[in-house]
Amino acid sequence: MAREGDIAIRVDNLSKRFRIPHEKHATLKAAALHLFDQKSYTEFQALDDVSFEVRKGEFFGIIGRNGCGKSTLLKIIAGIYVPTGGRVKIDGRISPFLELGVGFNPELTARENIFLGGSILGLTRRAIEEKFDRIVEFSELADFIDMKFKNFSSGMQVRLAFALAIYAHAEILLMDEVLAVGDSNFQSKCLEEFNNYREEGKTVILVTHDISVVQRYCDRAMLLRDGKIVKMGDPEEIGNEYILQNMSDEEKRIAEAKKDGAGDGIDRKRDVAITNVEFLDEKGQERSVFGTGEDIIARIHYFSRQTIEKPVFGVAIHTQDNIHISGPNTRTSNFDIPEIQGEGYVDFIIRKAPFFTGTFNLTVALFDWNLVIPYSFQEQKYVFRIKSAEANQYGVVKLDTGWKR
Q: Domain 4-26+35-245 carries which CATH code?
């Protein structure tokens, strides 16, 4: 356990409960007419007994599906929400980058909002004036500095808010989906700034759906689900657990859809599906049995009625005993697909298949770029077999081994 002086943020038994009214009135007249009516509410537990520590100088990632409590947690740490129970102890000045537009007045210009937002972050007018040119330069909004904030695109709003947040030079930076909006060039600048923060020993809490960013930049990560901590520790393990969780959720959804008589479980509103997988040899001939050392091509056919930008195809290979051998996807393999629409296929190639005799099951999946939305998921549905010519060999995988003395 870290010493007290080494802790930037300590969260103890934190809970947050919202009361959501059943009846909503759109006008003042309607509200006045029902002023004395007995109100009924539904209680929503956004956070439930959450406890963790973030050390000074640490990059701490928080991931989880929409509605798991990530943003609520950050808002409590930032002092925007008051917890229902528990407490948060902070050692250092905080600079939050939360929802778009928070801390900005839509009727003011970007120039005026820099001074407004800077004062909210605790900067003096003199400090803001000293940093003003750097904030504008980083945001790339010099040509729009006197335009009203309400006329900015969401990407422009992100650039201004992020530039102001990082130049506040607080000890603790709270980031909520900073990379969700904006072009790739600005995202690269944000990631470079993360490196600068690391070198300066600043503390960063990063909430994002982008698992690769958490795995690349964070020292530790935490997975939330339904307001509770599922797992906390190594970012690589936490990211993989999140992907498995999403796959499992999709598998259950498909099973429920089938149970309810919805055919194959494909969401017809989206109409996106992996339609088939066929196994081919290096000559393009369809086969189901291969020899050890042969190339195996799994041709993954898909159909998408809508255009999906930057899709990610993934596979998992299991033995008949359900031993997981490998699980690459197009993103981790640096095989970027700009978009898909209509019918098509993607080839997954196992070069010189290093398997001994046996039956192998293939799971295939189609995700969005952040591996959050499972458009299609088919677990161990497709089968190929290996018949090895190797004699007196045991096990699953042929390794390149030798003996020496």
A: 3.40.50.300
